Amino acid sequence: MGVLASIHRNTNTNVMIDFKDRLTQKEKRILIAEWPRLELYCQRIFGIADGEKPEHNKSFMRLITAVHAFFNDVILTHRLDDNTVSTVCTQLGARHLTFRQRGFQAMFWDIFMVCMNDVITETLSAYMSGSQRVMTIYAYHRLVHLIVEHMRNGYMFRRRSATSDISDAYILDNKTPSENELSVYSSFSQT
Fold first, then answer.
1. Going by C-beta distance under 8 Å and a sequence separation of 6 or more, which residues neighbour residue 91?
2. Please, are residues 38 and 147 in contact by the beta-carbon 8 Å criterion?
3. What is the pLDDT of residues 128-169, one digit of tens each?
4. How is residue 177 annotated by DSSP?
5. What are the backbone angles phi and psi of residue 129, rounded to the nearest 5°?
6. Do 64 and 107 meet the contact criterion of CB atoms below 8 Å apart?
7. DSSP class of residue 48?
8. CA–CA separation, 38 vs 45, rounded Å?
9. CA-to-CA distance for 191 and 171, rounded, in angstroms?
């Protein structure tokens, strides 16, 4: 059963998710090639119903614009470079700590991930079929998962580093930081 199926208690999915640390070159090619077409459905992906006028909600419009620009940047500008994606997402996650005063909670990333993956699956299924659809959905689910995990790591690290030093945060997580993470994380403790 895939991740989304387990969350939704739905066993009718034929897209099984196996999350690894990095996207494969084939997955990157699929994502980069499909993004311009998927992007045409941007309003739907970001939760705007047909006929709805989201321009009346300026905060919502800023959020949609920011998320859309972020995905464009990661997919098209940076071409899903592993180190760049990790750094950009970790930094963005760390910046979310400032949103706590507005009610942000780390669990919102799980909600975001499920919603994004559901709508991406629905959207791709509207114009794709067969193994191409399954591979593309799989690649997008992995991308969204990786983005969320890097953001969550940046957020949690910055939150912990506000009250302890870098090594204490890693002891709590029981993991060893990569050189890339150490350079990104050390910039948080200086801010």
1. 154, 184, 187
2. no
3. 999 999 999 999 999 999 999 999 999 999 988 876 654 444
4. P
5. -150, 170
6. no
7. P
8. 9
9. 22
DSSP letter for 106, please. T
Find out whether 75 and 35 touch, Cβ atoms under 8 Å: yes
* 3-class SS shares of the chain: helix, strand, coil, % to 5: 75, 0, 25
Q: Which of 25, 123, 36, 19 is nearest to 71 (CA)?
A: 36
**How far is Cα 103 from Cα 3, in angstroms, rounded to an integer?**
27
Q: Please give the pLDDT value at position 64.
A: 79
* Dihedral Cα 118, 41, 147, 186, nearest 10 deg: -150
- Token readout for 6 is 């387990």
> Six-digit token pair at 2?
């895939």
- Tokens representing 176 are 């060893």
Distance in angstroms (rounded) separating the CA atoms of residues 23 and 29: 10
Reply yes or no on whether the pLDDT at 49 is more than 90. no
Are the C-beta atoms of residues 54 and 48 closer than 8 Å to each other? Answer: yes
The letter for the amino acid at 37 is R
Chain-centroid distance, C-alpha 123? 17
